[in-house]
Amino acid sequence: ATHGLVVALADSALRGRLFVADFRVIQQALPEDRTRDSRWRDKYLPTPIGVFLEAPGHYESCDLVPLAIQIDQRQPSETDPCDPNPVHTPEDGWAWQIAKSYFETADVQFHLSAGHTLRTHLLMEPFCLATPRQLSESHPIHVFLEPHLRYTLATNQAAYTYATNRKKAWYEFYGGTLEIQRNIAKQDFLERPYRDFALDKNLAARDVRTHLST
Fold first, then answer.
1. Helix, strand and coil percent figures for the chain, each rounded to 5
2. Mind spelling out the 3-state secondary structure of 36-76?
3. CA dihedral 197, 201, 206, 209 (to 10 degrees)
4. Lowest mean pLDDT segment, chosen from 129-143, 149-163, 164-178
5. Is the pLDDT of residue 78 over 60?
6. pLDDT score of 41
7. Residue (of 77, 67, 60) closest to 103 by Cα position
8. How far is CA 24 from CA 27, 28, 60, 105, 204, in A?
9. Which DSSP letter does residue 126 get?
10. Rounded to a whole number, what is the distance in angstroms from the first to the last CA of the chain?
11. What is the chain's mean pLDDT, rounded?
């Protein structure tokens, strides 16, 4: 039971109602010597796994209900009992609130580095260059893309300065260092080539194509 719901996990999984947000790409972007100890005020970026249940009507604004969060990918060390990595649920009180904060920190970091900067701005840059080079101004695709590409190169230039300058906001605001932020984008690109973002492949990968057909 959670959030006032009685959840049969096996049945929900078989019915396709369980969803997992896994930030393993962040784990792959972290330095190999990264530790979970943040007492020395170094930036600490969690790599959580979150499980959600599709429960339409339970919340007014969202159909997904969070069920569990594990803050880091790494499992507890067998030789170090002071290095726990438990799975938190809504019944854990303040520990659940803290786990949600860690999850949101990772979510914002991933969105900055991969979800937005890479998958939106950087993936559009080749089209920004190819469209005026390969298509006439009257070509229907050129006409269609022009308003969407108009400010992309200037925005990407600004993003580059933020991703390389330690005096810019990205260095101050986000959980990961600039090196980690760049590594997240690199790892995500290596795992998902840009062709995988074609609409049909994107929908199939997220198993939502059949839902649209109905």
1. 55, 10, 35
2. CCCCCCCCCCCCCEEEEEECCCCCCCCCEEEEEEECCCCCC
3. 130
4. 164-178
5. no
6. 62
7. 67
8. 5, 6, 30, 14, 21
9. H
10. 31
11. 83
Q: Is the dihedral of CA 99, 101, 105, 107 positive or negative?
A: positive
What torsion, rounded to 10 degrees, do the Cα atoms 212, 147, 114, 39 define? -120
Joined together, the tokens standing for residue 118 give 């890479």
Q: 193 CB contacts (<8 Å, ≥6 apart)?
A: none
Q: CB–CB of 110/23 below 8 Å?
A: yes
What would the two tokens of residue 40 be? 């020395």
Residues 14-70: tens digit of each pLDDT:
777 888 999 999 999 988 777 666 555 667 889 999 999 888 877 778 888 899 999
What's the per-residue H, E or C state across 73-140? CCCCCCCCCCCCCCEECHHHCHHHHHHHHHHHHHHHHHHHHHHHHHHHHHHHHHHHHHHHHHCCCCCH
Taking 70 as the threshold, does the pLDDT of residue 13 lie above it?
A: yes
Which residue, among 106, 103, 108, 72, has the nearest Cα to 90 in the 3D structure? 103
CA distance 143 to 139: 6
| Pairwise CA distance, residues 149 & 124, whole Å | 8
